[in-house]
Amino acid sequence: MGMQIRQTDIRGPGRALGLRFVVDAVNAPDLASAWPTLTKAHGDPHLGELDASPEPVAAAARALREIFAIHDPRQAAASLNHMLAERSAQPELAELADGRWALRPHLADASTAADTLARVGAFALATWLAERGRCAWGLCEAPDCDRAFIDEGRRAPQRFCSSTCATRTRVALHRKAAVRGAPTA
Ligand SMILES: [Zn+2]
């Protein structure tokens, strides 16, 4: 067997309630209403029964969104460490349905959606920072888009949430340059 570079798949089943859940939660326009659907889609329907009062859950999402805006790893680490401590998100080993083991934040005593989101979010982003060695995430730089995204690339840092946003930004820039460069009649 040849050496293989291990690529973390953030969509893998071992990552239930992981990075994709965090991104979807942070990007949800109405998180309180979306909470049961989101937790179900990301593998833990029981969490959908938690109290998802709009204000606290929106505050937790905002706090995580602020992390997505940070690009300095030391600053991000300080914020994440603070969030982990504040929310008592100590890690524990959990056996997944398929028999594999996952390291996750302790959730049994998280009584609200806000608490759960903060613990899961801070833990997922902290793990990802450690794995990538940089803030491999961001907020989309396209006009009229502020979606949070996870940067899975290996080369240049990602600036947009999707190829759609990257393309339309490039097209807009070209158009602007063309207008500027157009000969005046
Ligand atoms: Zn975008």
From TrEMBL:
Domain of life of the native organism: Bacteria
Domain Zinc finger CGNR: from-to ranges: 139-176
Pfam short name (any one): zf-CGNR
UniProt-recorded name of the protein: CGNR zinc finger protein
Source organism of the structure: Leucobacter komagatae
Taxonomic lineage: Bacteria, Bacillati, Actinomycetota, Actinomycetes, Micrococcales
